[in-house]
Design brief:
CATH superfamily of the largest domain: Trypsin-like serine proteases
Number of helices: 7
Radius of gyration: 37 Å
Helix content: 10-25%
Distance between the termini: 139 Å
Order of helices and strands: HHEEEHEEEEEEEEEHEEHEHEEHEEE
Number of strands: 20
Length: 373
């Protein structure tokens, strides 16, 4: 075999290998493209009209969405709203005539007892309750308590619904709450939502109040503050709009805690008045700053400034500058005021006070009496 013939054989072999590689790549690409196009056609679905891309110059199409509206807030409102009422009163004027005032309230019993604020019905010559459906019925005042700003009314006949009390002692800062009432007397059943902003607040002369940022306006007074279970945890009583220095404030609403409301309402219904347990002391609240300034061992409690003569405190041997830190081992602190703790007791109950005196802790026992008029 000649060298030239061998050379042509080598060239032909190399050319065959090259064509095989190139051809295989081309065929692989063709097959891959076919498979990809086939899969894309299988997976591609027509785009619904509601979510098609918007073409330039074409109006956008709103996507139709279904939302489940059965939330805890809506359920709580639906549960309690029929029990919330508008309270209308006729009050005298300085010119001898009469004018109408309004507030809110909530039915608390099947018998027709309604809780509202004392300041809503104070000085009223007549009271009317308006149910959520617009029905108007006359109401009588069962009793009032200016100290807690709570009043109880009574309506006759069937009531559309009544609410139950929750435990205000279980409230936590940051917990969701709902206020329902009739702001300005015109917007019956208005609902606002917020959180518990603080507990045991004092807005003189009231103390132990629940603070919330749920919007409260004129006319909301006496309406319920409720939790997500649809229970009353407070009765809305006031809102702070500005400070002593004139600085404006927003979202500072306050409610009487439900445990206090329930105790006051029960006494007003049963006897028409409140008998407050009385110790016979004047005091200041102690906090860490005051304790540091006065060099006190106790960081919480109340420091006594005056002892009423012939009172239980005087009989028990309490002295000015004593610091009462607990009552029956219930601590007096930022979450529990002395007044709110006393609301748990009745006239005639015996209690034990934990007292810090000259750096030592002593226990003094006394019997509660009725607060003088």
């Amino acid at each position: 075999m000649s060298r030239s013939f061998k050379g042509w054989i080598i060239v032909l072999v190399l050319l065959g290998i090259l064509l095989g590689v190139v051809g295989g790549g081309v065929m692989g690409g063709v097959v891959g493209m076919y498979v990809a196009r086939s899969n894309a056609q299988q997976n591609l679905q027509p785009v619904p009209q509601e979510i098609k891309a918007v073409n330039p110059g074409q109006p956008s199409v709103v996507q139709n969405l279904t939302v489940n509206s059965t939330t805890e807030i809506i359920d709580a409102v639906n549960k309690l709203k029929p029990a919330v009422v508008t309270v209308m009163t006729d009050v005298g004027t300085s010119f001898g005539g009469s004018a109408q005032a309004s507030g809110s309230g909530v039915v608390i019993s099947q018998d027709g007892h309604v809780v509202t604020n004392n300041h809503v019905v104070e000085g009223a010559s007549s009271v009317v309750v308006i149910y959520s459906d617009g029905t108007r019925v006359n109401a009588t005042v069962v009793g009032t308590d200016p100290l807690t700003d709570i009043a109880v009314l009574k309506v006759n006949g069937p009531v559309p619904a009544y609410a139950t009390f929750g435990d205000s002692g279980a409230l936590q800062v940051g917990e969701w709450v709902i206020a329902i009432g009739s702001p300005l007397g015109n917007y019956r059943g208005s609902v606002t939502v917020g959180v518990i902003s603080g507990l045991n607040r004092r807005v003189s002369p009231q103390e132990g109040l629940v603070q919330t940022d749920a919007a409260i306006n004129h006319g909301n007074s006496g309406g319920p503050l409720i939790n997500l279970a649809g229970q009353i945890v407070g009765i809305n009583t006031l809102v702070v709009r500005d400070t002593v220095g004139g600085a404006p404030a927003e979202g500072l609403g306050f409610a009487v805690p439900s445990n206090t409301v329930r105790s006051v309402a029960e006494q007003l219904i049963s006897r028409g008045k409140i008998e407050y347990p009385f110790i016979g002391i004047s005091y200041r609240d102690v906090d860490p700053q005051l304790a540091s300034e006065l060099g006190l061992t106790a960081k919480n409690g109340v420091i006594l400034t005056e002892i009423t003569p012939n009172s239980p405190a005087a009989a028990a041997g309490l002295k000015a500058q004593d610091v009462v830190t607990a009552l029956d081992n219930l601590p007096i602190d930022a979450d529990n005021s002395l007044r709110s703790i006393l609301f748990r007791y009745r006239v005639g109950d015996k209690v034990t006070l934990s007292v810090e005196r000259a750096g030592q802790t002593i226990q003094l026992q006394l019997t509660l009496v009725a607060r003088p008029s």
